[in-house]
Amino acid sequence: AQTLKSAAASKGKYVGTITDPAYINGSDRTYNTIALNEFNYVSAENSMKWDAIEPSNGGFSWNNADTVVNWAQQNNMKIRGHTLVWHSQLPSWVANGSWSKSTLTTVIQNHVRTVMTRYKGKIAQWDVVNEIFDESGGARSSVFSRVFGGLDEFVTIAFNAARAADPSAILCINDYNLDYSGGKATGMVNLVKRLKANGVPIDCIGSQAHLMVGQVSSSFSSTLSSLCSAAGKCAITELDIRAKTPISSSGLSQQQTDYTTAVRACVNLSNCLGVTVWGITDSRSWIPQVFSGEGAALPWDGSYNKKPAYSGIIAGFGGS
Ligand code: G3I
């Protein structure tokens, strides 16, 4: 029978989901079964973030990330490493340290080198930096942008350290609200072009694609194309399409259409690597905790029934 991964493979793309030890070893076996049957790429939802993996300076905590990597390898799933340098889920020793450029450079280099070296050859893509832009395309305020006085310097440091640690990994810069033409997407394109012209080893732009039902921009596809051109490769890295809950039947059908639109935008680009969906079931999505009254964003409902969105993804990959 057709699955998401067979449909994706027919177009030379992958389709990914997220997991963590709570899913791999928890009592909810259905989540794990669907992950294995339907998907061929995986990101750790939380286990590879800086607070999880290096909670104190030089003190690394590998158990959860190891669990995800071992599970993926045993099941022939490729891995997107998420994420090395991010202002959020950043331990307070980094966020609140009193750094000079030189000491923070060492901290970034040590984190990137140590994590990537442990999983060298096992992680196909890394989100080397995540969510560094504000909505206008300028530098988001973070310990990194403050200490270095902008983005270029710390992004360069992180990508150079990443390339040196695992030359075979595809290195990505990842962000959200790159779903339409505008200041943020333009800021991303300009930064990537500028740094690549200076030899910084950025291979790929990740567009998270946290979308809203009925509001997928008419410029979604052309914007993804411009990201792909700027970096050489791109990927949709965290796709979900949320609605006001409870979602109506017309909402479900619009969501199906919207999933097709998003997936097809990647399929139509030869250098779009694939699509990761940020979860499986509506009952385990991050959205209701962050957007009150919204959710229902994923292809399976809270009881693991396939929603029309599932068929929408299949259709986006050219299946029926
Ligand atoms: O680990 C603690 C636990 O000790 C504590 O008891 C519990 C109580 O709230 O919280 C746990 O931390 C939670 C963490 O997930 C791990 O489960 C945080 O509260 C919760 O906020 C955190 O949410 C994650 C969120 O990133 C944090 O920024 C979501 O699961 C995860 O799906 C979400 O993923 C992000 C991507 O990494 C980047 N792009 C946006 C996307 C959605 O926000």
Structure description:
Belongs to the glycosyl hydrolase 10 (cellulase F) family. It catalyses: Endohydrolysis of (1->4)-beta-D-xylosidic linkages in xylans. This is Beta-xylanase. Residues 1-316 form the GH10 domain. The chain has helices spanning 4-10, 21-24, 29-38, 50-53, 63-74, 92-95, 101-118, 143-148, 152-165, 183-197, 220-231, 249-267, 287-290, 308-316, and strands at residues 14-19, 41-44, 78-86, 125-130, 170-175, 204-207, 210-212, 234-244, 272-277, 294-295. It is built from 14 helices and 10 strands. The protein has one domain (4-316): Glycosidases (TIM Barrel), CATH 3.20.20.80. By secondary structure, it is of the alpha/beta class. β5, α10 and β6 (204-207) form a beta-alpha-beta unit. Ligand G3I is lined by residues 45-46, 88-89, 208, 238, 286.
The shape is: globular
Count of extended strands: 10
Strand-residue fraction?
A: 15-25%
CATH fourth-tier homologous superfamily:
Glycosidases
Rg calc: 19 Å
Oligomeric organization of the protein chains: single chain
Small-molecule components bound: ligand G3I
How many H/I helices? 14
Q: What name does the CATH topology carry?
A: TIM Barrel
Average residue-wise pLDDT: 98
Overall number of domains: 1
Q: Which class best fits the helix and strand makeup?
A: alpha/beta
Low-pLDDT parts are none
In this structure, how is the largest beta sheet organized? 8 strands, parallel, barrel
How far apart the termini lie comes to: 11 Å
What is the CATH C level class, in words? Alpha Beta
- Order of strands, main sheet, comes to 1-2-3-4-5-6-8-9
Query: What portion of residues is helical?
Result: 40-55%
